[in-house]
Write a structure and sequence with these properties.
The chain is of the alpha+beta class. It has helices at about 5-20, 65-90, 105-110, 135-150, 150-155, and strands at about 30-35, 40-45, 50, 95-105, 125-130, 165-170, 175.
């Protein structure tokens, strides 16, 4: 989709939200299932199931990306999408955006060897490269707007309310334990 068409799509969405704020709600749903070992299947919308797996050194078969890589992919692609959307809305020409990401994970936390070490990434670093013929001022403004409105970056930078339940199935009986 070119920038003009993209701008029209986002403008239409913004107009619908202004007309009725309930239009701003956009729920996301996925379903995942452990298949075997550490290999999982993820179902999103009407797409074919995605395989999520670990490399052999983490007990997997390397049949797909692992959850940490998915998190980095989510951040990088969300930034690229937001750069494209914001550039379209701001009438800034955009040729290409690439994001290289790195997450630092200490396996002692993941493996429960040291409770003082986080189980997840201790840091995430990204390097974004923007290819555009726009002026420096416009591009600085684009960076500011994009980084302040990127949903994945926002969710990683602030506490997010995460809640869940766990149920145990034995035979035909299901019992909630949390």
């Amino acid at each position: 989709m070119n920038q003009k068409a993209l701008k029209e799509v986002f403008q239409k969405a913004m107009d619908a939200i202004k007309a009725n704020p309930k239009n701003a709600s956009m729920p996301f749903n996925t379903k995942t299932e452990l298949v075997e070992g550490v290999k999982c299947s993820a179902q999103v919308r009407d797409f074919p199931p995605m395989t999520v797996d670990e490399p052999p050194e983490m007990g997997g078969t390397n049949a797909g990306v692992n959850p940490g890589e998915l998190l980095l992919i989510a951040l990088g692609t969300c930034q690229e999408i937001m750069y494209s959307a914001c550039a379209a809305l701001m009438d800034i020409p955009l040729n290409k955006v690439t994001v290289n990401l790195k997450g630092d994970l200490d396996l002692r936390g993941l493996l429960g060897m040291d409770n003082s070490v986080p189980a997840g990434f201790s840091s995430i670093y990204y390097e974004t490269t923007i290819d555009s013929d726009a002026g420096e001022g416009a591009l600085k403004q684009l960076v500011e707007v994009t980084e302040s409105h990127c949903p994945m970056l926002d969710m990683l930078r602030r506490p997010v309310d995460v809640r869940g339940t766990v149920s145990i199935r034995k035979g035909g009986k299901i019992t909630k334990i949390s």
